[in-house]
Specification:
alpha/beta, six-stranded mixed β-sheet, Aldehyde Dehydrogenase, Chain A, domain 2, 14 helices, single chain, globular, Aldehyde Dehydrogenase, Chain A, domain 1, seven-stranded mixed β-sheet, binds NADPH dihydro-nicotinamide-adenine-dinucleotide phosphate
Amino acid sequence: MTETKLNYIAGHWVAGDTDIENRNPSDLSDLIGHFAQASAAQLDEAIARAQEAQRIWAGYGLERRQSVLQAIGTELMARAEELGRLLSREEGKPLAEGKGEVFRAGQFFTYYAAECLRQLGETADSVRDGIEIDVRREPVGVVGIISPWNFPTATAAWKIAPALCYGNAVLWKPANLTPASAVALTEIIARQDIPEGLFSLVMGSGRTIGQRLVESPGINAVSFTGSVPVGRGIAAAAVQNFTKIQLEMGSKNALAVMEDADLDLAVTVALGGAFGGTGQKCTASSRLIVHHAIHDAFVERLVAGAQALQVGHALDPATQIGPVVSQTQLDENLDYVALGRSEGAELACGGTRLDRPTEGYFMAPGVFLNTTNAMRINREEMFAPLTAILKVGSYDEALATVNDTVFGLTSGIVTRDLARATHFRRNARTGVVTVNLPTAGTDYHVPFGGRGQSSYGPREQGKAADEFYTTVKTAYIAAGVPA
Ligand code: NDP
């Protein structure tokens, strides 16, 4: 029996009513640990204490806040190897990606450490005589953060860092599939010079503790990343209290490969975008829209490339594609393979469960051919190592197909034609557009988010994050009042 990892509530590590077990998806015999599940009473206490702590934190000089964020970021980067290994062990992404994610999480903290010192307001003269105006951003208050398992440390970091930077308190409910990474990040935050209760970790299931968090009138804002149905439920619950929300959800990202594309580049970009992170990315290229003139040559190389990818244990240095995260996710993926076939798509490779020396959720990357954009495999987010080829006759048809979706997170084009790339950049209806790059892979200092059912509310990351994590106050000062 391993020691149970605890929740961090109102400045103390506390046991829960129950525990969950966390196992390595690359090797189900590897028990990562047991993790406490917060009770409703613990959540309520954490919210009450966060309200007091937030007022203290917001009153600190900016340099004190900056030092805290800098220290968290520096430690994450210094421990990227160790914490990346833990992340890969529990989530299943290859070790290089796990380490890279922890390092990137550190960069979010150091970026927002610097942003602490760049919080400038505006001043104005009034339209009335003798009055001055001061416009400044104030913290929104207590922020509930609900994060997913696919980027357990980075997603949490890009929400927690700006929340703290702009003077808020945080209640963090991580995904129950990746609690070890959540505890590791919390241990770092808990050691900092912060008011007791400013930051709480409330592990528990989404349906119970997550739902209660969202419905609580003590929470001023909720930032969520996950599925569309849960996002929709959060929006409906939050509006009852007029809680501010920011939702990052699914997508059905398309990469357009034009007839003038560099074929090697196109295949590399498509493979990375479709299968990186086992396809479990909201930015994954799950539709490959290919000009007919290059279609056969592209498909031949893409399928060969997919078949050559090494699927295996996340901690094996030779592994390029780790396991999918859970039995539920694997079952859904295999259901999509069956669905695609029943819709008339041809599976050119992969799409099957794989046996490896350890028992895990391994799946061969799959490529569907002869698909239409009306098929469900091209309309629904699969979150799987699966991609579908759509053959088109022209650039205009490619662009129309890219935009024919209810989602709108990322899209990309591979072309050597500057005019076409520019047209695509201006006309693709997504929040992120890439040219000769995978649809996945973004920077931390610029806005991130989508359109349609992919996102709702203000953008995340970069300076744009202040829109969600602050509220604007406009002050009128009658400077000429006699003493
Ligand atoms: P969910 O949307 O269920 O989970 C995301 C987060 O929300 C988790 O922390 C989860 O907690 C929590 N949650 C679940 N239900 C509620 C609720 N009623 N109220 C508040 N919080 C809740 O995604 P899944 O992990 O189940 O994955 C299912 C699908 O969602 C994937 O196949 C993929 O399509 C999509 N997804 C998209 C992501 C993205 O990056 N856009 C990330 C993850 C998933 P817990 O898991 O502990 O129950």
